[in-house]
Write a structure and sequence with these properties.
This protein is α/β, with parallel strands linked by helices and 400 residues long. It is built from 11 helices and 13 strands. The strands form 3 sheets. The chain has a 6-stranded mixed β-sheet with strand order 5-10-11-9-8-7, sandwiched between helices. Helix 1 (73-98) crosses helix 11 (346-368), helix 2 (113-122) crosses helix 8 and helix 4 (146-154) crosses helix 11 (346-368). The longest helix has 26 residues, at 73-98. It is globular, with a radius of gyration of 22 Å.
Length: 400
């Protein structure tokens, strides 16, 4: 790594030359990602450049994203805190699932935080999104508290849906789930995009799915309808490379997911880098609002198994996970950017992480103390107004 520093009042310019990043699942051939590119002005603003260039499909006639984002010190801290909270929350969920405080399905987002945080930084109020069942990070970004998310996993009354939805079913303003059926959210996302176009509200829908779901027929049907009508939708493949337990190289005849739209342009993004994600999302919003559908591939990595029932031992090793985490962890690299931009010291970041960990621990205890959801709630929140529940025959009703 080479470093060049040029000082001239009032700005300090710091430029670092980066070695190549890995391209592919485990083709890791270089040392820890310890350098960034940053231009720092008065220690309050910085320009962060993406670590890796974008790969594109049928976008030659368009101005591509620069991969550079302008960040204020306060925004940098906010991004760090959001990623740190999601990481700690998912770690607690893992521990509590093993302690049998959480039952049923539970899919954790650890390792993929740069995607939900970086993309949400670019979303506008008018935009919408829909995702699959790995949705805890997205729920947090949509405004749910740690208490509401964990209580929902515990199935009690403090939960976002009073414990009736569970791990896979969070919803909110502009957030259409949390969906448990593999790939089923993609055509729904196209439908939400149709609503944006019909209402002429200028909104863009982001429809998320994984590399496993990318082979579903309904995904391609959604592509077709979206292109026929030029819907303002961005199809986002969160490619964590192992689907439910099969590597993308073994499960997909083509694992260039950003090209899968064929007649729909696409872009591949380093999903472990907040700067790359934010810049690409800014571009995607502008493109889809004006031109119609776009396919984005976010190359990322999950640190846990597909779900908590996945032992995560048969298709990769713990050394594989450790290697990726040591070199490309999104939280670690963002902290490095902050230090090099003089936004924080390592000691300040360490203290902040300890504070966040303690707060999540307190939130966990509060969520665990939530009262069980009463049986009288079982039929509520199905319609906009709660209605009496009919019994087993046509004539008996219960006013619950």
């Amino acid at each position: 790594v080479c470093v060049c520093v040029c000082m001239s009042a009032p700005a300090l310019t710091l430029t670092l030359c980066l070695p190549d990043r890995f391209d592919g699942m485990l083709a890791v051939q270089r040392s820890v990602r310890t350098a960034t590119k940053a231009v720092v002005v008065a220690q309050r603003f910085a320009s962060f450049e993406a670590f890796e260039p974008y790969e594109t499909h049928k976008l030659d006639d368009f101005t591509l994203p620069t991969g550079t984002i302008e960040v204020e010190k306060e925004s940098a801290w906010s991004i760090f805190e959001k990623m740190a909270v999601v990481r700690r929350m998912e770690t607690k969920a893992s521990v509590l699932y093993k302690a049998r405080k959480i039952r049923g399905f539970c899919h954790l987002y650890s390792g993929q935080e740069a995607v939900c945080v970086g993309m949400h930084e670019a979303f506008r109020d008018v935009d919408s999104f829909i995702t699959a069942y790995r949705c805890h990070g997205w729920a947090y970004m949509n405004g749910y508290s740690v208490v509401q998310i964990l209580a929902e996993l515990f199935g009690n009354s403090l939960g976002a849906s009073k414990g009736k939805g569970g791990s896979m079913h969070f919803y909110g303003e502009g957030f259409y789930g949390g969906n448990g059926i593999v790939g089923a959210q993609v055509p729904v996302g196209a439908g939400v995009a149709f609503a944006h176009k019909y209402k002429k509200d200028g909104g863009v829908n982001f429809a998320f799915y994984g590399d496993g779901a990318a082979n579903q027929g309904q995904v391609f049907e959604a592509y077709n309808m979206a292109k026929l009508w030029n819907l303002p939708v961005v199809f986002v493949c969160e490619n964590n490379h192992f689907a439910m337990g099969t590597s993308s190289a073994r499960g997909s005849a083509s694992d260039n997911y950003y090209t899968r739209g064929d007649y729909i342009p696409g872009i591949k993004v380093d999903g472990m880098d907040v700067a790359a994600v934010k810049s690409a999302t800014d571009f995607a919003i502008e493109y889809a609002a004006e031109n119609g559908p776009l396919v984005m591939e976010m190359s990322t990595y999950r640190y846990h198994g597909h779900s908590m029932s996945d032992p995560d031992t048969t298709y990769r090793t713990q050394d594989d996970i450790k290697s990726i985490r040591n070199k490309y962890d999104p939280l670690t690299t963002w902290k490095q950017r902050m230090v090099e931009a003089d936004f924080a010291t390592p000691e300040e970041l360490k203290a902040a992480e300890k504070s966040i960990a303690k707060q999540v621990d307190r939130d966990t205890e509060e969520a665990l103390a939530g009262a069980p959801t009463p049986l009288t709630e079982i039929a509520n929140d199905i319609y906009t107004e709660n209605v009496p529940t009919r019994g087993c025959d046509l004539y008996t009703y219960y006013n619950v």
